[in-house]
Write a structure and sequence with these properties.
4 helices; mainly alpha; single chain; elongated
Length: 93
């Protein structure tokens, strides 16, 4: 599906298959393939936009949660949450 959508307008079939082969030769998921597609389509700027578009939301989410982590991770809060969860699953005999 990706090949039928990307190849006709953005690049040649050979460019697509070369990038796919390169991305599959690297360990891990094909995250770097999006940067390759962006770079082939719009140069270095396109590669950067594709990279930020892929990893940016996760990084923003992490930094949005960090201020609240201290509140949840405080010992008193943790003990209260554990007590509440234990009371939900504990069945008196």
């Amino acid at each position: 599906m990706l090949q039928t959508e990307v190849v006709p307008g953005w690049m040649t079939k050979d460019q697509f298959l070369q990038g796919l082969g390169l991305a599959q030769s690297m360990p891990g998921p094909l995250f770097n393939f999006s940067s390759y597609l962006g770079a082939v389509y719009q140069g270095v700027a396109g590669g950067l936009v594709a990279y930020v578009g892929l990893f940016g939301p996760g990084v923003i989410l992490i930094f949005a949660i960090v201020p609240f982590w201290a509140l949840v991770h405080a010992p008193v809060t943790t003990c209260r949450m554990q007590y509440s969860l234990a009371s939900l699953f504990h069945s008196p005999s």
